[in-house]
Design brief:
By secondary structure, the protein is α/β, with parallel strands linked by helices. It has three domains: 7-65 and 82-115, no CATH class; 66-81 and 116-468 and 804-810, Glycogen Phosphorylase B (Rossmann fold), CATH 3.40.50; 542-796, 3-Layer(aba) Sandwich (Rossmann fold). It comes from Thiopseudomonas denitrificans.
Length: 818
């Protein structure tokens, strides 16, 4: 009897139930009484099997249509837990929950034990995860390329108020249950060695051989990325570094075991840990290895796939586009040139035409110090051939600059890819080698053109554009906020999940008392979930009736967690002096990680925790004010935090934040923003209306004008509240047994050279905070604010962002999968 290989797995409750038992028993060797970790893995295998059906069909549809393809290159994909999201996108939540219930199992308990995938750090990686989710939902043929880190950045513990890092071994089981190893697509990446030039005697063509290089295998592991109920499953391909099988075999046989193993470990260290600390030379080298490993393996993969169906490269640029997520994959410019001229034997001009027609660069920072540079000596030692190519790209580029601005040597120096000390400026390489350069918020993109990249903008104004960030409503509303999802389904229909513009219809319910009460009930339930998380993680019990004032994001001086902390001290000082008329109880929530080598950021964490210890331990304060720092901030934590937040803190120094995406997650879930005119805050305020946004602080141009004459003492001298705050800090009230602990923070905030002008914004911040508190006390008024924030957040869906990328940059055609 002929077997039907096209049969598909069934999604009814009984089939799901039986498959769960089968995977648990026959694949994992366990029973229903086993540990919940095994049940989680069994359930993932059940769902993955169903994704594979759609995955195969997606590849078949792409093969048949042969569409233009997009490739998203990113060092981070912070995808978080995946089980709940995939159940949502497949439409299987209810059937799976019922199947498990019949077996005496709880879906929520099983979902809770899945680890957050350690593939990213913060906003950059979460954005990439949202992007690929939206691409699949829009049925765009886009493939993500990243690295399969064995350890995430780190797991954050708080000990005596200090951040302590411990390894985040998220792959402790040895594999990620969602992935499929695709060893047949293994690529080889080279490092070190030297270059030998010669001329082909028959053709006279100059050829360069990269010789005596160390070779590392890049083994791909594919993760399915399903669209929302549309049968499309795109691919996130993650590269794992593996030593050549013949690693120093002669040395091993000769008895030099440690030499053999050292070579193997060095090769495989490339994908051992996310973002090694690059404060040391060895850390810098490892990070550079990671970046080149990503782009070389990925580009080889794309070219190999192209050659399966095409001869030659005449139409390659018409059918492929690469999006570089920040400067980390900028080496793709040089590597694609190397592959085309050294391995495919294309002439330089023809190869360069292909590169500059296929590369697009997204910038994520306005801080000059955050733009990556690599020492020339390190580049020559580790990547001699790509470095040769970069120098030739730069030589030809500077010739064009000299032609545009004859004799302007200073401009040539500013624009050069190679800096004055021989360092390679990765953002410059990305801009020179790309046809599109975009910022990630309207203000950010304008500041790039006017400031950071002004010379490039004058040379190529047509390259520059804006693509305001977004977040996926599947993860950040439908999955994270089930109560709100049910309400929106009822009043808007389920289509809102893929068409967030429908949220505007909520304004029609502003005067409906039943709707408003339901809205408040949902928010209270979400706040109770957050309160339970706070107590579980910090031991602090908080009231769900208080104003939940939340700032969770990477700890950095420009994000100004310190300004928030100063306001907390101000509130504490008010309570202690009895200034509590019209008081509104408040829970101030902080969360976020500081880079291991970032001394000041780690000191800010310590200060926040010390303030929390004093405030929470003072019986005179009671429930009027609670302060908590949630350790090990993550995607799964944010899925509880965002729906439970009342006031969203977006207080970065104006002109410093590129966009932000946490601000969008909070807004969608009905939080009200207190913030500066920075990043995407500008557009959030435009969408929600200035009367529904708590604005404070200097504008970006005002910050620029102030910095040269900034004198923090002036602000202290004329503000008694700020004097009281500084007195408590300087007297050691929050570090009574840790003498001088916060002297560097105090000196920094009082320094003329403080680029974040923290004290200049203190008065405005305190005043607006009081306005926010009084607005929260007006229950009906705050309900209106909350509903309007959700109703007017439709612009900030990554579905819109991806459509903008596609319309203006990629120009891909959607491919329907049947």
């Amino acid at each position: 009897m002929k077997q039907n290989f096209e049969s598909r797995l069934q999604n009814d409750k009984d089939s799901l139930e039986q498959d769960f038992i089968n995977y648990l028993r026959y694949h994992l060797g366990r029973e229903l009484t086993s540990d919940v970790d095994y049940k989680m893995r069994a359930l993932i295998l059940v769902i993955r099997a169903r994704l594979v059906d759609n995955w195969r069909q997606t590849w078949a549809s792409y093969h048949k249509a042969q569409p233009k393809r997009g490739y998203y290159l990113s060092m981070e994909f912070l995808i978080g837990r995946t089980l709940g999201n995939n159940l949502l996108n497949l439409g299987l939540e209810e059937d799976v929950a019922e199947a498990l219930q019949e077996l005496g199992q709880d879906l929520e308990a099983i979902e809770a034990v899945e680890s957050d995938a350690g593939l990213g750090n913060g906003g950059l990686g979460r954005l990439a995860a949202c992007f690929i989710d939206s691409c699949a939902t829009l049925q765009l043929p886009v493939m993500g390329y990243g690295l399969r880190y064995e350890y995430g950045m780190f797991r954050q513990l708080i000990q005596n108020g200090f951040q302590v890092e411990e390894p985040d071994h998220w792959l402790a089981f040895g594999s990620y249950p969602w992935e499929l190893k695709r060893a047949e697509y293994t690529r080889t990446v080279r490092f070190g060695g030297y270059c030998r030039d010669y001329v082909n005697p028959e053709t006279g063509v100059h050829i360069v051989h990269w010789e005596d290089a160390e070779e590392v295998l890049a083994v791909p592991f594919d993760v399915p990325i399903p669209g929302y109920k549309n049968q499309t499953v795109n691919t996130l391909r993650l590269w794992h570094a593996k030593a050549q099988e013949s690693f120093k075999l002669n040395a091993f046989n000769a008895g030099s075991y440690f030499e053999a193993v050292a070579a193997k470990n060095e090769a495989e260290n490339i994908t051992m840990v996310l973002y090694p600390n690059d404060s040391s030379e060895s850390g810098k080298e490892l990070r550079l290895r990671q970046q080149y490993f990503l782009v070389s393996a990925s580009l080889q993969d794309v070219l190999a796939n192209w050659e399966r169906f095409n001869e030659g490269y005449e139409t390659f640029a018409e059918n492929n586009v690469f999006q570089l997520n920040d400067t980390h994959p900028s080496l793709a410019v040089a590597e694609l040139m190397r592959l085309l001229i050294d391995e495919k034997r294309l002439p330089w001009d023809e190869a360069w035409k292909i590169v500059t027609a296929t590369m697009a660069y997204t910038n994520h920072t306005l801080l000059p110090e955050a733009l990556e540079t690599w020492p020339g000596a390190l580049m020559w030692r580790l990547l001699p051939r790509p470095m040769q190519i970069i120098e030739e790209i730069n030589r030809r580029f500077l010739a064009k600059v000299a032609m545009k601005w004859p004799g302007d040597v200073e401009r040539q120096q500013r624009l050069s890819i190679i800096g004055g000390h021989g360092e390679v400026r990765m953002a410059h390489l990305a801009i020179v080698g790309s046809f599109s350069v975009n910022g990630v918020a309207a203000l950010h993109s304008e500041l790039l053109k006017d400031g950071l990249f002004n010379d490039f903008y004058q040379l190529w104004p047509e390259k520059f554009n804006n693509k305001t960030n977004g977040v996926t409503p599947r993860r950040w509303m439908a999955a994270a906020n089930p109560g709100l999802r049910a309400l929106l389904d009822e009043v808007l229909g389920e289509q809102w999940v893929t068409d967030l513009s429908r949220l505007s219809q909520l304004e029609g319910y502003l005067d409906d008392p039943v709707f408003r009460q339901t809205w408040r009930d949902i928010k209270l339930e979400n706040k109770q979930r957050l309160a339970a998380l706070i107590e579980r993680e910090t031991g602090v019990r908080v009231s769900s009736n208080a104003l939940f004032d939340v700032q969770v994001k990477r700890i950095h001086e420009y994000k100004r967690q310190l300004l928030n902390a100063l306001h907390v001290i101000h509130l504490y000082a008010r309570i202690k002096r009895g200034d509590t008329a019209n008081w509104v109880d408040r829970v101030v929530v902080f969360g976020g990680k500081a880079a291991p080598g970032y001394h000041m950021a780690k000191k800010i964490i310590k200060l926040i925790n010390n303030i929390a210890r004093v405030v929470n331990g003072d019986p005179e304060v009671g429930n009027r004010l609670k302060v908590v720092f949630i350790p090990n901030y993550s995607v799964s934590a944010m899925e509880v935090i965002a729906p439970g937040t009342d006031l969203s803190e977006q207080v970065s120094t104006a002109g410093k934040e590129a966009s932000g995406t946490g601000n969008m997650k909070f807004m969608m879930n009905g939080a009200v923003t207190i913030g500066t005119l920075d990043g995407a805050n500008v557009e959030i305020r435009e969408e929600v209306g200035e009367e529904n946004f708590f604005l404070f602080g200097l504008h970006a141009d005002e910050v620029q004008q102030l910095v040269p004459h900034y004198n923090p003492q002036d602000y202290i001298d004329r503000d008694s509240d700020l004097q009281a705050v500084m007195h408590l800090l300087e007297s050691g009230h929050f570090n009574q047994h840790e003498y001088g602990l916060f002297d560097d923070l105090i000196a920094g905030v009082k320094a003329y050279a403080d680029p974040w002008v923290t004290l200049a914004d203190f008065r405005s911040y305190v005043d607006v905070q009081e306005q926010a508190a009084q607005a929260f006390a007006d229950v009906e008024g705050w309900t209106t604010l909350s509903i309007l924030n959700t109703a007017r957040s439709g612009k900030f869906s990554t579905d819109r962002t991806m459509q903008d990328y596609n319309n203006d940059i990629w120009q891909l055609q959607a491919v329907e999968v049947s």
